[in-house]
Structures are given as C-alpha cells and as structure tokens.
Amino acid sequence: MTATLTPLTTADAETLVAAARRAARTAGAAVSVTVLDAGGHLLAFLRDDSAVLISGETSTRKAYTALQLGAPTADLVDLVKPDGPFHTLATALDRPLLFIAGGVPIHRDGKLVGAIGLGGGAPEQDHSFATAALAELAP
User: Fold this and answer.
1) Contacts of 39 (CB under 8 A, 6+ apart)
2) Which of 31, 39, 68, 72 is the most buried (most CB within 10 A)?
3) Helices (DSSP H) in the chain: which residue ranges?
4) What letter does residue 131 receive in the DSSP assignment?
C-alpha cells in the first residue's frame, strides 16, 4: 500500500505566516514572509507595514532557493562564495536564486512539500523566524 503525501495547504501557510510574524515581532523585526508549495507556487505572502520594501522580494527568492535546492539557504551561503564549488549558481539560472539565510524547505513524511522565506531582519534572524514557524506546523 502506498502512503498518501499530504501537500502543504493554505491553512498550513497561514499557520506559518502567523508563527513567523510572532517570532519576528518578539525580536522587534518587521518582515515579509513567503510560503511556496512544492511546485514553487505562492501559497501565502505578507509584508509587515513597516518592513523594508525589498524584503518582499528577498523573502520570495529565499523561499524559492530553499525549495529548488532542498536545503536551508543558511547552509548554502559558503557554497556560492567566489571560492565555493557552486560560485556561478547564483547567476546560472533564469529565475534568480538568493543565497542569504532566511529560506527553509518544508518536509512532510520525508518529502519536500514547500518552503518558507523570511526577509527584513538580519539573515540569522530571518532563519530563526523561519525555523520557529516550522516548529509550529503540524507534522
């Protein structure tokens, strides 16, 4: 018998956005939050009123990068530095990737079902807000 994979839902995306915003507010950061499904389609997006405008773009690119590479963007930063093994990856594709901490893939039953991206805080903050949000998502 084959197990059925439960995709990421809009309810899941709303949970993630709310949890990420709570974590950011606690830290005093204004952020943008992007949630993508497994196909890279937008499930949810929210930019705090006082978040810098570019945070909307960076949150989305971080989520997309984490989804496409199946890894947190925080883990990829060194790979694209000039001496890194994937230093040309950042400019190799038509769709821009962003190798700054704050994007995290979302797995369910060991399968990639989406990604969350945060922008607006320091990179380490954005990563921690994303992981805090994932901790609130039901398995």
Assistant:
1) none
2) 31
3) 10-27, 54-69, 89-92, 123-135
4) H
